[in-house]
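The data are quoted verbatim here:
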Amino acid sequence: MDRHIPMHALPEEIQKMSPEEKVCKYCGVSYLILHEFKAMEEKVKAMEKEMKFYQGSIEREKILQEKLQFLSQDFEQYKIDNESKTESRICFRLKLRLEVEHYQLKELMPNPQHSHIESYIGL
């Protein structure tokens, strides 16, 4: 703990007093401890203020961690859904392309002997 240094020096007559004169004869505590006590009060007030700032931080962090976990899970699910939708779109486009090509082949080759093309395309 930092020692509080008073802004003004004690008067000379107090400085020249013997230790027995500056100390309580009953408990042995210096009468001149008031400035140290005031400094400790200021530190306690500052620490109380800091504690209020940190009060509940563990609970807040736990809540934030839970929210982050839920958001991460949602993100992963959205990625999976998006990949699935992308695959569905690709399948749909391929199917559409095959249908168009099948139609075009039918138009180009109206001969019934080319019916094996339909079985090849899968339609």
User: Anything to note?
Assistant: The chain has a mean pLDDT of 79. Residues 57-108 form the longest helix (52 residues).
